[in-house]
Amino acid sequence: MDWPKGVDGLSYGGDYNPEQWPEEVWDDDVMLMREAGVNLVNVGVFAWSRLEPREGEYDFGWLDRVMDKLHAGGIGVGLATPTASPPPWFGIAYPDALNTRPDGVRQVHGSRDTYDVCAPAYREASRRIAGALAERYAGHPALAMWHVHNEYGSATYSPHAERAFRTWLQEKYGSLDALNEAWWGSFWSQHYGEWEQVLAPRATQYLPNPAHELDYKRFTSDAMLEHYREQREILREANPEVPITTNFVFGQWVPVDPWKWAGEVDLVAFDSYPSAPDERAEQQSALHADLSRSWAGGGDWLLMEQAAATVHSKDGAIAKAPGRMARHSMIHISRGSKGAMFFQWRAGRGGAEQWHSALVPHAGKHTRMFREVVEFGGALPGIAHAAGSPVEAEVAILWSPESWWATAGAHLPGPVDYLENVAQIHRVLRDRGVVVDFAAPEGDLSKYSTVIAPTTYMLSGAAAENLRWFTAGGGRLVASYLTGAVDEHCQVWLDGYLGGLTDLFGIRVTEHLPQPGGELRALWNFGAAERFCELVELRGAQCVTQYATGDVIENQPAVTVNPFGEGEAWYVSCKLVDEAWDRLFEELQLAGPGCAGVDVVDRGEWRFIVNHTEREAQVGQVVVPAGAWTVDKRP
Ligand code: GAL
Predict the structure, then answer these.
(1) Pick the CATH number of 1-158+218-265 from 3.40.50.2300, 3.20.20.80, 3.40.1180.10, 3.40.50.11190
(2) Does ligand 1 have an atom closer than 6 angstroms to the CB of 343?
């Protein structure tokens, strides 16, 4: 399916909230959009209270006019279903349909994302507003795609959710005996005698059961998917030619498994909000882009939101220096995004996000920001042709949302930061110029020569077999500490951990040794490890390097390699520092044309270069000025 429908080349634009502005601003908006080269805007994302001011009563007049104006200006519309923010009347009429926190407090309207995805009244109201929008706009010439909901992620622990959870568990386990066994129910007297005794993992006295928590995340992902599917079917029926999507967001708190969801959307869309002020923002953006492309099966995807200038993160507000908006956009476009979209078009005057940046700042068009927006929009049509070929990667990093979720708890064998470990591999390889894909633990690995599995704490039997098959067939597998510590039920893999793959790695892991924070453990000729080491027993593997210090681990294997079938399995039994990973990748001859601060992505006959540094960069014959980007024929 072609997406967005009727939008040629790369998409450029953002969330557009005309309902927050008087009508006289709308013509100005369309004029400025045209000046900036905007060709797609997302409308109505949080507009429910203006579309259905009273239950069952619709006001579409304003949206009709907006859609017509945008169409007349040649701008496509990603029309949102506004279900991420039910109106006040809804919360008053159906208080039980707003979400309940883990501590049992039921939330009230006043912000957004306050809904209980399992509440019948919310589901019905969602179908109704989606249906009304479909009926009215399915044939509108401006309609380029449907944008269902916004950033699924608001979990609920309500009685509605609890009931649905039990049904989900019954389908999954078939019997209470199987559930009790999977959850290791005899521990702390948690053996269930009736299904009704099973609750959502609400606030409890001390450590919760990790298997219970993990199943609840899986369940929530499925419950949200059902909500999405209901809307999708309604929209699809009204106009099968218009692509349908929802925008993914990134965070350990988000109970959505994108590997499962990606097949349900016509285009993978992602909102990228790097949280760091320094060059880690570029690393995070590249990580987001490579994840999104991989969820999309290696094909096109769309950067649906990013901040044009100031970003609000947990570290406070961070300004974007001149040129950075374009460079971040180019990180995404070079890595497969079919455009660059933003939150939001025009900066708001009021409301909780009034200080969030926008393509049109509060000060209007005569601003540095808007000039950059126009300049970048003007450049995009000239590179659209180059963004058509696939991004080629020979190396994949395993991305396991379930390992991420499962390492969120406080019950772990030591400090483990799954995301940081994944990001570290991505960062070190990016600094070596290697563009990587991500792969699902149970996904197709056949096109990769090397697969790196950082701290894949949870390994299902099927995933373990997948890794075995990949290596036996000639692949090079590199796994790091805590690989396969537990199975899909959060139960420990016995007799050496490693997801039962002790023969593949030619080792057994016999002890976990969390290390004091801040102390480094030197490895012979290999840099150092920090925070976590394991005691490894060789069972056929060769030792590549040993620990130089440490009570139990001194002179014990730190990195090993084992030939297996046609391939080989490397094991890193500790958290290496960046320099040590770099040393290992040197040994494995993983290198590409880019380097630290200079992204180089080859696509078909085209080479994208983004120079984030303050110096001129030379890549082959091409010289890229400081802070600039280029798209040229590949040498
Ligand atoms: C996104 C959200 C937008 C806006 C933005 C601000 O997560 O989808 O509506 O809130 O964050 O950073």
Answers:
(1) 3.20.20.80
(2) yes
